[in-house]
Amino acid sequence: GYEGSLWMGLLGPANMPRDLVARIHKDVSTALASDEVAKGFTAAGFDIEIKSPEQFGRMLLGEQQRWSKTVKETGAKVD
To answer: Rounded to two decimals, what is the model's pTM?
Structure first.
């Protein structure tokens, strides 16, 4: 009854200046939108989904909440 997925993203230090976050987001988004980079990811089996920093933050929070609940419900442990 559980399903997981693989995703990748970039994280920076807490309180990173917003202008730097915006610049990195713009540059990475531009690179991921290029045919050359997109073809490489697609060939490796990845779908590219560019999120805003705010959307990515909400996704991370959702993942943390979902997996925290799953660990508590199942008693899962790391070997």
So the answer is: 0.79
pLDDT for 37-64, tens place per residue? 999 999 999 999 999 999 999 999 999 9
Angle between the N-to-C axes of helices 53-74 and 18-33, in degrees from 0 to 180, rounded to the nearest 10:
90
Residue count of the chain? 79
Rounded CA gap, 11 and 14, in Å? 9
Instruction: Provide the pLDDT for residue 2.
Output: 76
